[in-house]
Design a protein that fits this description.
Chain lengths: 490, 490
């Protein structure tokens, strides 16, 4: 006989399956969809969003949640996540959810066109519409509380703008100090070579496999903005190719592999259940960043990579593994967040965090955003934005309504710092393995300690369980000081 | 104020949008999906099928259909199609619909593996399951009537197995006679050249555009089995490449362009409504076949194509446009339906029709299918099937539950014969245009006479309106006798 819990989970399983479809359409939209299909796709996404919203607010859920009896802690965790989703969903009116889905779907195409044409004005009316809808959504969720917190909670349950801002305030001085010191030191040599697209993609595929990406349950394609999409047994990633800068492709790939491995590494028993997905964007980002930076950009691993690249691309004008490590870890003020080095990256995030909080609060008008962005960028990075595609049009996030998402990138870096500290403690021969291109000990341990749990534990708890201590920013900042101190002879 | 009709259409519009999503997942499954995702995809498709079935059987539809007042003939046609869909859907139990979706989704992967491994036994248990479910579906639909008619009605409303069999009986003697005469005549020279994949795909793209395919609302990819997918402003096609036989790629492409242009050519006012899709598989096939054969394989057009191919591929060992036309129109017994010439093609279809009728009636056991196929093939085509991939494993149809679909291919050829007769009458300079590679007058007329109407008229009516006469098999058979008589000097 089916218990109430079983009925609830059977219903939930179908909802999760439909949510996977929505994700797949998102992937399609950024990789495969013909441009002329954008408007129709908006209607399709809105219809599916309507179905999902109806299911997430289905009246039976309230009864099931009242009556279901968990048999163990896992059942209890499932119920907790279903209840959280139900509480959030019932606060958002169905017509608002559908309008958001429709507007953000078409906004993405408008953003891409505006970015290609470098025309901010083409994007502003749509962005204003997205923000107005997100403000309505936040107001419905916050019920008198902070609007930004309400949005952030969707990506990082338990985090608040206030504690995040406080942590950012603690981090900023050390990052600014490190940045100043590095920029005064001798810069690494310039890379001056042409790396063919096909050869880059071949190496990207090899790197993905080496970092544990399972191509029988995923695929790697090109897209404007690298991303990972899907849960369970269909987790797809994208990258991009710049022929003069192969590290853009390689490290975007490794980054997305980190995200994908998190999803692919979850206990298969959790497939198509609330536990069957990464628990938060911050924990997700911890995986992508530890793969990309603490492992992929470690001098031990770049030594292996240097030899590989000579084999694959021929001599490309870099003389030593030491210079190669410094080039891969080059620190310089740059316009693009996703291309930023580890020292600058969190400064980009802090800027987005402040701007989007102001937008959502209504303290910053959309018409003033470009000026606000450019002023802040000049102040923080010491260079003037030269074109909108390098400024406020660079990221897809706002077009698709992802407000409250940016700070999770830095939270992810903080968690990655903690996980890396634990890896170094638990795997004394880590550098030895990395120098032979062997990622398996490290990625295997992350899978065991973090990835397999999916949504089982709350974000800070999963990091604490994996490392033995509550997460703080100190390990990340210590790691950055030590690594860049050594690379730049500080 | 919204009328009942408006309410109904708003609901229907969302259903159509969700059905488009289902189609897009089908496309993804055959072009992009990683193999290891098949099982999860089965659950996703089943969940979406459950949503669609619930909407198609929604109790409000019965009331709306009773009360809606059409303002004009188009409204009436919308209501007629919604009523037909509702009547069909309410006859099929929801759990049967879901099981069919789940089984056919996984069956497709099993079929593809069995075909690649040439192992019939790997496919039979799944095929038996599909057939059992289709028999249940047919019984639910037929309510005492003929099972096969009930299935066929889904693809070609108004057609029956009996009238189809009678028409096939009238066609067969003339086809067999023509076939015998051609096979006794001198065969065209062999093509012996290697045509690179990339150059083939480039020419395929140019051909697609030339035949009117709008790449801003579609895309061309590789797949095992060429197909067209989608309606409205996102209609995607696939083709395949055989490096020794470029016509496989080129004519598969032109064929699918015919299907896609039908969907893309429909009056945009019908977008995401029941009228916004091709009215039947037979009429669909009439477009793909008239593009592929009556236009694309006409000696006038192949003269242009001959010069193009020399420009693109260099000399490839064919001396004259006359030999080229004979090569493109080579008649020979072959294993593969989709590669069959115009003389043999309908004989393939007639064989499938007889076999699948017997399977559905229960007169032929799945275990005996391979022998039945091979015996019949030897009798009809004079050659023994050499491997299952060339025999009963060649087509995707049965794995995805498409029983009753095959005869619509020959109905489509018959309609194409009628449409071609009318084109020749109405466009006296057609050959002149074709010989310059100009398809626009012909495809423009097909768009105006057939495509733009979508589901507005019943299948035989749309052909009758376009040609001025009820469709019969005579124009097709006359065209085949005349064309192959001239090419082979009969």
């Amino acid at each position: 006989m089916m218990s109430v819990f079983d009925d609830l989970m059977a219903f939930q399983r179908e909802t999760e399956a439909l949510a996977q479809i929505s994700g797949r359409l998102g992937w399609d939209q950024e990789t495969m969809m013909p441009r002329g299909a954008a408007e129709q796709r908006g209607e399709e996404m809105a219809a599916l969003e309507g179905v999902l919203h109806a299911r997430r607010t289905d009246l039976r859920l309230a009864d099931w949640l009242d009556e279901a009896e968990p048999q163990d802690d896992e059942d209890a965790a499932q119920l907790r996540l279903i209840r959280r989703s139900y509480d959030r969903a019932t606060k958002i009116p169905a017509d608002l959810a559908q309008r958001l889905a429709r507007v953000t779907s078409t906004a993405q195409g408008i953003w891409a066109d505006a970015r290609a044409a470098d025309k901010v004005a083409d994007f502003l009316p749509t962005l204003a519409e997205v923000i107005a809808l997100k403000q309505q959504e936040a107001a419905a969720l916050a019920q008198g509380g902070d609007l930004y917190d309400a949005l952030m909670d969707d990506y990082e349950p338990g985090a608040t703008a206030e504690t995040t801002a406080a942590m950012f305030d603690r981090m900023r001085p050390r990052l600014v100090r490190l940045r100043a010191a590095v920029l005064e030191a001798t810069a690494p040599p310039k890379l001056d070579h042409h790396f063919g697209e096909n050869a880059q993609m071949r190496f990207a595929r090899d790197l993905a496999a080496r970092f544990g990406y399972d191509f029988t349950r995923g695929r790697l394609d090109l897209a404007v903005h690298p991303f990972s999409s899907g849960s369970g047994s269909d987790v797809r990633i994208t990258t991009r190719v710049v022929e003069t800068d192969p590290f853009n492709c390689f490290y975007s790939t490794i980054h997305e592999v980190g995200h994908a491995c998190y999803e692919l590494g979850i206990d298969p028993d959790y497939l198509l259940t609330p536990l069957g997905a990464g628990v938060s964007m911050g924990v997700h980002e911890s995986q992508s960043r530890v793969y990309e930076n603490q492992l992929g950009r470690s001098p031990a691993f770049t030594g292996w990579m240097f030899r590989q690249m000579i084999d694959r691309f021929g001599e490309f004008g870099v003389d030593s593994p030491e210079d190669f490590a410094r080039i891969v870890n080059r620190v310089q003020p740059g316009f693009i967040r996703t291309e930023a080095d580890e020292v600058h990256y969190n400064l980009h995030v802090m800027m987005r965090f402040d701007l989007e909080r102001a937008l959502i609060r209504g303290d910053l008008a959309v018409a003033d955003l470009e000026a606000a962005w450019n002023d802040r960028f000049l102040a923080d990075f010491g260079v003037a934005v030269d074109r909108p595609a390098h400024g406020m049009l660079q990221d897809v996030h706002w077009s698709v309504g992802l407000f409250g998402y940016f700070p999770t990138y830095t939270l992810g870096n903080v968690y990655a710092g903690c996980l890396h500290q634990a890896l170094r403690r638990d795997l004394p021969d880590l550098d030895d393995q990395l120098s032979r291109g062997n990622l398996a000990p490290a990625t295997g341990r992350l899978r065991e300690k973090v990835q397999r749990h999916g949504g089982r534990y709350e974000p800070r708890d999963v990091i604490a369980r994996a490392t033995g201590a509550a997460p703080t920013e100190a390990p990340l900042l210590d790691y950055l000081d030590a690594k860049f101190g050594a690379l730049y002879g500080l």
